Batch of 2 targets.
Target 1
Amino acid sequence: MHRDHSLTFWPAAVSDGRLCVKAMSCLFCRILDGSIPSQAVYQDDECYAFADINPQAPVHILVIPRAHIASTAEAGKEHSALIGHLFLAAAEIARSKGLTKGYRSVINTGSDGGQTVDHLHVHLLGGRPMTWPPG
Ligand code: 5GP
Ligand code: ZN
């Protein structure tokens, strides 16, 4: 059967019960649906964590919500618990990776924030001392 892919929606494109057309082309939604492979680190009902393809530290993991939210700039009050959950998942992963001396968990937002993938994600960086301020 011919399928018009411009009209194809993936389950991962469901955000808060609404189908989000933008999510169809989202790299991290495609990682979530398995069409792009990733190295899984942790997952639960709300989030998925995987190794960053271009690690900036000995440990560099991305924690993403299963729901497509473009960035913290697009997030609303209804996402408060979810965003908290992402940081606590990062803390749990940090424990499991033995990052006893600390780590950095950070969200980049927008072009000035250095965001390159428009699906909200927490970077978990560890295994070396971090510098401040970040570049
Ligand atoms: P941002 O720059 O948006 O804060 O972070 C995006 C991150 O996604 C970058 O650290 C980049 O290395 C990572 N990334 C981009 N494409 C892929 C990919 O296909 N697979 C994985 N595992 N990470 C990716
Ligand atoms: Zn997405």
Target 2
Amino acid sequence: MSEFRFTAGPWNVHEGADAFGPEVRKPISFEDKLKKFKEIGLSGVQFHDDDAVPRMNDLSNDEIRNEAKDLKKLLDGYSMSAEFVAPRLWEDIRTTDGGFTSNSKEDREFAMWRSFRSIDIAKALGTDKVVLWLAREGTLCEESKNPVKSIKRLTESINQMLSYDPSIKILIEPKPNEPIDRSFCPTMGHVMAVSAASDDPSRVGGLLESAHAILAGLNPANEIAFAIAHNKLWGVHLNDQNGMKYDQDKTFGAENLRQAFNQVKVLMENNYGSKGEYVGLDVKAMRTQKTGDAYRHLENSIRVVKLLEAKVRSFDYELQKKLVAERNYEALEMYVMEHLLTGN
Ligand code: XUL
Ligand code: MN
């Protein structure tokens, strides 16, 4: 039962803009974030392609590689690693209708260009992980895309990435909605199916985000377990979410402590981390948080994971076994609640 290594992305320390209002905190430079990430106990950083290489659309492939190499030196200077690189396929005008499943051939080609560059950046940063959060791979208007063709296009795009670099691993991060209404790959079960349909299932796995599972009406711990059972849980984004509404990215455990406990429990019981996997935190500070205290949500999430790790270590597995044998699940449930509410 291991102690975890943590990561976060530069976007997790943000200026507080939301769909209804502008920034409320001052921007912080990447190097300042990196220093602070190290100080609060993170081991590495998650990147979107243009977090790593800003303005990459204006650069040549070689210039992109060189900028990524400079970033690697900066990371090395702080003994911080890069966990993954994710193509940001949702902000450019050419991905308005999605990337891999866009109805426009030119736009699909642009999405592949960004994906190949993400692979180049990942290699330069010393990681073999590319994350695909399929932000706009779905529909706003259900009749606007052919769903079968779109799902095949998604698999074909992944196959192109697999053949572009023989060592790269693709981690699909499923989410059922937001910013689109209906996603083509909403849950971990869908991810496993896409993996199985790909040219190399051993290189296509999943990253489970707690909030995304809750948005799909599912239990995050069981989504984690589903990927683990297929040997395909290569990343997590622990956070929390108050029901099926907008994506909240709350501090881990802030909404449902028992649900958080069971995520940590299934990770620990299955030695998550022993193959180099990180515990990623995809949490965002509340908009009300003041400049100068913009990392507290990350520190709090790490603290909650560590407290829950201790709760898993002191969990009475013998008692669990006995109560399961007696099929006394009322007693087991009460034990779990008392364990969470009292002592160590
Ligand atoms: C969006 C989300 C992303 C991915 C990385 O909901 O979770 O930040 O984690 O692209
Ligand atoms: Mn995420």
